[in-house]
Design a protein that fits this description.
Helices cover about 35% and strands about 20% of the residues. The chain starts with 6 loop residues before the first strand and ends with a helix. By secondary structure, it is of the alpha/beta class. It has two domains: about 170 residues, NAD(P)-binding Rossmann-like Domain (Rossmann fold); about 100 residues, UDP-galactose 4-epimerase, domain 1 (Alpha-Beta Complex). α1 packs across α7 and α2 packs across α3. The chain has eleven helices and 14 strands. The model has no long low-confidence stretch (mean pLDDT about 95). Keywords: NADP, Oxidoreductase. One of its GO terms (molecular function) is oxidoreductase activity. This is NAD(P)-binding protein. It holds the Pfam family NmrA.
């Protein structure tokens, strides 16, 4: 019988994706899940017999390695946010030192293998490349944009309407957080170790253009739509939004995109079938929740 992983650790387990991943791992029957938090963290977690929470200085490689070793961690999952992406090489160093067998970097977005720009996607690519250089197997999961945060792309919260940046005519991938977290738990708990090491999975709940998304938000949520040439500089994270939208408009926003070959690999590259029997949520499903 193929060997599966039993003991998992999460960094970023209190975040928008981290908490659902934690909940799904526990629900799927993980033998042990340890959430590492910074000493100053105020995050709280519901009690569970399989869950431990340990405060540790994530910038102290020796301390983190000791904590990983103490709990016999086999898989280290990073679900950190953008601000902490560049700190992941320290997690890799600690994981390698402690004998961790698999590192799951904080990808959870668009394909980064072979990317040549210098945005945050390049930071993610360098993290995975560093893990490889250290001989630490990794699992990369691409899911496109979080469908639950579709309003973010249109600056709805700041402007009270969906700002549709032209041309907005190229499709990109959106996947619900519930589907992402469920898939992560499913493969980590059930798949043989050999199928996860140095693997890349591409999952997709829905695919549409920014123009279609704006129209859907208008139809489902009665949000007005305004066509604009660029993201206004006075909205939160304007530069990041413009970067993402430019990425979509260059056709690179679909999870089946291959940066090295500069082409769409097609539906055969999508890994949804690995979660047999699961019904994936559309953006409309998420908006109507």
């Amino acid at each position: 019988m193929a060997t599966t992983f039993k003991n998992f650790a999460l960094v970023g387990g209190g975040g928008a994706l981290g908490k659902p991943v934690l909940e799904r791992l526990l629900a799927a029957g993980a033998a042990k899940v340890v959430v590492f938090t910074r000493p100053e963290s105020t995050s709280t977690f519901a009690p569970n017999p399989s869950l431990s929470v340990e405060k540790v200085n994530l910038g102290d490689i020796d301390a983190l390695a000791a904590a990983l070793q103490k709990h016999s961690i086999e898989v280290l999952v990073s679900v950190v946010g953008h601000a902490a992406l560049e700190g992941q090489p320290m997690l890799i160093d600690a994981a390698k030192k402690s004998g961790v067998q698999l590192f799951v970097p904080s990808e959870f977005g668009f394909p980064t293998e072979g990317i040549t720009d210098e945005g945050f996607l390049a930071v993610k690519a360098r993290v995975a490349d560093y893990a490889k250089s250290q001989g630490l197997p990794s699992l990369r999961i691409y899911n496109g944009f979080f469908a639950d945060y579709a309003f973010f792309l249109g600056s709805v919260e700041e402007k009270g309407k969906f700002l549709m940046v032209e041309p907005g005519d190229k499709e990109f991938t959106l996947t619900a957080v519930a589907d992402i977290s469920g898939f992560v738990a499913h493969v980590l708990i059930n798949f043989p170790q050999t199928k996860l090491k140095d693997a890349t999975f591409r999952i997709e709940g829905d695919r549409m253009t920014l123009r279609d998304l704006a129209s859907l938000c208008n139809t489902v949520k009665s949000i007005p739509v305004e066509i604009v040439d660029a993201v206004p500089k006075d909205v939160a994270l304007a530069e990041g939004k413009q970067y993402l939208i430019a990425h979509f408009n260059s056709r690179k926003g679909i999870v089946s995109w291959d940066n090295s070959q500069q082409k769409d690999l097609g539906t055969s590259a999508i890994s949804n079938g690995l979660w047999a029997g699961h019904t994936w949520k559309s953006v409309k499903d998420v908006l109507e929740q």
